[in-house]
Amino acid sequence: MIKLYDKVLVTKKNKHGNVIEIDDDNGTKPPIYLIEIVDSEKGINDEVEDVIFWCDEDEIQLIQR
Question: Domain range spanning residue 43?
Answer without folding.
Answer: 7-64
